[in-house]
What we know:
Blueprint: H1 7-18, H2 33-45, E1 53-57, H3 63-71, E2 76-81, H4 84-96, E3 102-106, E4 119-125, H5 134-142, E5 145-156, H6 162-175, H7 182-191, H8 208-219, H9 229-237, E6 243-250, E7 255-257, H10 282-289, H11 293-304, E8 308-314, H12 316-320, H13 325-330, E9 332-333
Parallel strand pairs: 1-2, 1-4, 2-3, 4-5
Antiparallel strand pairs: 5-8, 6-7, 6-8, 6-9
Helix pairs in contact: 2-3, 6-7, 7-8
Amino acid sequence: MRENFDNITKKVETMYMKYPYPSPSTEAIQTNELLNLLKIFELEGGIKFENIKFLDAGTGSGHRITNVAQHYNKCEFLGLDISEKSLEIANVLKNKKKLDNIKFHKANLMNNISSLGKFNIILCMGVLHHLSNPAKGLENLLSTLKKDGTIFLYLYGKLGGHKRMLNKKLISILLAKEKSNYSNGIKLIRELGLNKFEYGWNLNFKSKEEEDSLIVDYLLHANETLYDFNDIDKLFKKSDLYGYAIFGITTGTQGFLFDSSYDGRKKISIPQTNISKFLKSDFSLAHYKSLSLKDKCRVLDIIYEPNGYTIVGFTRQSFEKLSNERLKKNFIKIK
């Protein structure tokens, strides 16, 4: 089959060939957020990931997924990426950690990838929003999901990303016809003092090389689509999933588990969204309580202004097995 390499896909591939992300020198302790996410999912649901297959779509240089594979050594992993340079780094990490439960494969998520087989868990963290057609990319990913499988997505937030996008636009205007000149873009960003990273990009870099990769991903990326709750809902409505739930959000300074309830109770000691901190009277809370779940999500969206969302998509079978009460409260049925 002929590969679908549109102009946007080519630009993104070229960018990551020059500036793989995370940078090759990034240490494991700096990239544990994916592992932490899966541990929280296990803890809240009282489950254990064992003897299942993971697909990491858009694995980048493999730092995050090799941490995960090292921890879940009874599971199988396949990491996909469009950048050969990133995959070279990923394989070096795999060999350095002596992992035999993970493989890496070059793939374009805009193409049909169903020949890769079926997976219990699909991870697509911070990748779908960089595709030329995210809805098509999601469709391609779901063709590899088992009937009782679950997909995790991380998408950039529109409301919390407003200032970053203004800064990105400023640099784009200053670069004029040299928009693909990343070295000049990096220099401009440093000179203007715009290399101040929000939560999610703050990997505590230890070298100029690491910071360069962060700067490119943060303010010079070749393509990105930002989402608010309404956009997320539209994206999932087009899919064949049974439904979805927002697992967590990130803001400019920290991350929160997402909770649409109003009592402020939590099972584990991790920050959660809490509407009662903002709507403090019985009068205002009564209005919130009367809302549909989608409107509650919209209210929290406006109040917290996320710069990113972690979303979990479920098939009917995976939802019926779900034991996470918080996610059940947040679950939005599609069909």
